[in-house]
Amino acid sequence: MQIIGLNLEELEDLVVKLGEPRYRAKQILDWVYKKGIDDFGQMSNLPALFRQRLQDRGLVVSTITVAGAVEAGDGTKKYLFRLTDGCGVEAVYIPEEKRKTVCFSTQVGCPVGCTFCATGQQGFKRNLTAGEIVDQVRKIGLDKKTRISNAVAMGQGEPLANYAATLKALRLLNAEYGLQMAARHLTVSTSGVVPAIYRLADEQLQINLALSLHATTDQLRSALIPLNRTYPLAQVIQACRDYAAKTKRRVTLEYIMLDGVNDGEADLVRLAELAAGWLCHVNLIPYNPVPGASYRPSPPWVCQRFLGYLQEHGVAASIRQERGAEVNAACGQLRQHLKM
Ligand code: SF4
């Protein structure tokens, strides 16, 4: 069993079962999250016998290890983590002047199968545990010797298809005894699991929601994101509007710009109509080509045309700055490259 992934109450119950007072749990979590120590032997304020008992019981702090990493000239660094069963998942560190962001994975592979995504082409293996999720962020902070300010569930997997573990991980990232990240700095990106969007809105957490929109008709969206056949566009947009109304958090509509696919004038007019009049922001994303997929990125002037039109029509919009293209920052590509 691993310590990362247990919340304070669960760890208190565990230490009490091992014959120690409850406060030992908080001491262990301080070592793990505040000091970045994984070895019970170094937790010097714990009795030596207790440290030994933890080890004898087969407990470990962490189970994921860094199997590879590549860093781009702009400081973006992509990590490949190896799990105990030999599977690999990726996470990306994105440094900016005012924030340090980690984009983390929630599943090994992905069941959604988006046609423009490297992970979607690799199939689905399993859900990650809460510990495997939160530890990606912690380990990257330790490697970069910095405080991670923002985290986004936008790596491999559909976070809302692994709801319980993802939510638990977000609570650990946010917890005072955990990584102490503000909830408003945490984002869940979904391809549109409608019932889970409503569930998330009821969690009483100020977490940001991002929707992988990418198309403005059901026909095209179903071709790009097969989940759209289960939860069509109108239902997904209504769920996002309800999320924004309930949480007062602005929803991000992610729109990957695909040349000749979703970047025509009619697409643009529909996109502006769909995003007008509610608390959302359109994020236009230059496409990062994936080996084996036939899509091409829209020319920069088309992205600018979209941006200008949306803003003229009162829609908050921006073009995502390309980061780390030389380290294949789109999800799934490092794992594919290293054949894991
Ligand atoms: S884009 Fe996201 S939801 Fe779609 S296949 Fe890739 S990882 Fe899964």
UniProtKB/TrEMBL annotation:
GO terms for biological process: rRNA base methylation; tRNA methylation. Reaction proceeds by a ping-pong mechanism involving intermediate methylation of a conserved cysteine residue. GO terms for molecular function: 4 iron, 4 sulfur cluster binding; metal ion binding; rRNA (adenine(2503)-C2-)-methyltransferase activity; rRNA binding; tRNA (adenine(37)-C2)-methyltransferase activity; tRNA binding. Its main location: cytoplasm. It is found in: Cytoplasm. Its EC number is 2.1.1.192. Belongs to the radical SAM superfamily. RlmN family. Its cofactor is [4Fe-4S] cluster. InterPro entries: Aldolase_TIM (IPR013785), Elp3/MiaA/NifB-like_rSAM (IPR006638), Methyltransferase_A (IPR040072), RlmN_N (IPR048641), RNA_MTrfase_RlmN (IPR027492), rRNA_lsu_MTrfase_RlmN/Cfr (IPR004383), rSAM (IPR007197), rSAM_sf (IPR058240). It holds the Pfam family RlmN_N. [4Fe-4S] cluster binds at residues 110, 114, 117. Binds 1 [4Fe-4S] cluster. The cluster is coordinated with 3 cysteines and an exchangeable S-adenosyl-L-methionine. Specifically methylates position 2 of adenine 2503 in 23S rRNA and position 2 of adenine 37 in tRNAs. SMART domains: Elp3. It comes from the Bacteria. It catalyses: adenosine(37) in tRNA + 2 reduced [2Fe-2S]-[ferredoxin] + 2 S-adenosyl-L-methionine = 2-methyladenosine(37) in tRNA + 5'-deoxyadenosine + L-methionine + 2 oxidized [2Fe-2S]-[ferredoxin] + S-adenosyl-L-homocysteine; adenosine(2503) in 23S rRNA + 2 reduced [2Fe-2S]-[ferredoxin] + 2 S-adenosyl-L-methionine = 2-methyladenosine(2503) in 23S rRNA + 5'-deoxyadenosine + L-methionine + 2 oxidized [2Fe-2S]-[ferredoxin] + S-adenosyl-L-homocysteine. S-adenosyl-L-methionine binds at residues 157-158, 189, 212-214, 288. Residues 96-326 form the Radical SAM core domain. NCBIfam families: rRNA_mod_RlmN (TIGR00048). Keywords: 4Fe-4S, Cytoplasm, Disulfide bond, Iron, Iron-sulfur, Metal-binding, Methyltransferase, rRNA processing, S-adenosyl-L-methionine, Transferase, tRNA processing. It is an enzyme of class 2 (transferase). The active site is at 90 (proton acceptor), 331 (s-methylcysteine intermediate). This is Probable dual-specificity RNA methyltransferase RlmN. The keyword Disulfide bond applies.
